[in-house]
Amino acid sequence: MAFAPALADELRAAVRDYLAGRPGASWREFARDVGIAGLLVPGKHGGAGCGAAEMAAVAEELGRALSPHPFLQSAVMAVEAATSCGADELLEALAGGVSATVVLPGDGELRLDGERLTGVVPYALEGELVLAYAGGALVEAVPSRRAAYVTMDESRPLQRLDFDGVPVRRLGDGAGWARVRDLGIAALAAEQVGGAQRCLDMAVEHAKRRHQFGRPIGAFQAIKHKLADLLLLVESARSAASAAAEDEVAAAVAGAYCTEAYLVVAGENIQVHGGIGITWEHPAHRYFKRATSDAQLFGPPQAHRARLATHILGTA
User: Fold this and answer.
1) Fold entry, domain 1-98
2) Core-most of 46, 82, 119, 128, by most CB within 10 Å?
């Protein structure tokens, strides 16, 4: 069901409770029960008509839980792509729980010849529908073949898409692709904050519970200082993520800072846990894997800093 726009904190609590109570729920069930698939879809198309704050709240909770749901690519990127070209029918489908993935310029080698799409996208996020920016247009196309990857980070499914001269449905021009990318970066940054916060919480809990020499290890200065540094990273990343949807510069800042912050916090969480932190049974390694795969999703931190250099210094 769709819901009226809610405060970010209320939405965050609803998503957290749902993920805890129904961890195996499908994307369509999530869309029906909570309405997050249509979070950014205008109310006249069956969505909630929410904005960046609500988007960040949901993304943060999904990152905290390492959820595999396609919120980033479908509820954020695909919705923005459809909105930019007035694809009302597609917006209604997305709000109803149909998932989609978006292929940005540079994600693959695609060629649009008239009404036919040819090429390969080596790595794409999962989605039932495929929206691709190719030949200066936004098109919807059905791949000739899909091949799912077996990845170290099982919480972020990836696939290869092949197009062998398949027919396309033109949705509009491709002028809005940069905004789609930046909203994706903003949603990813919020996910990274959620994951980093969970890693910090785990590290603090362990430091209170684990004793050495008759004292909690959190009482030792080395651990205290490490946790204080991690708290600074998480809060700074949260500030960057909260502004990420404003413009391309803010998105690039968040893309660089939140990525590196998550990598550091996830790695230090393992160190605080010691031997147990590297065992398969403990979840710490799963967050480190997500942090590592996130670092490549929209380009590594240095790519975001290069974009910043172009805007701020006027040089590439």
Assistant:
1) Butyryl-Coa Dehydrogenase, subunit A; domain 1 (1.10.540)
2) 82
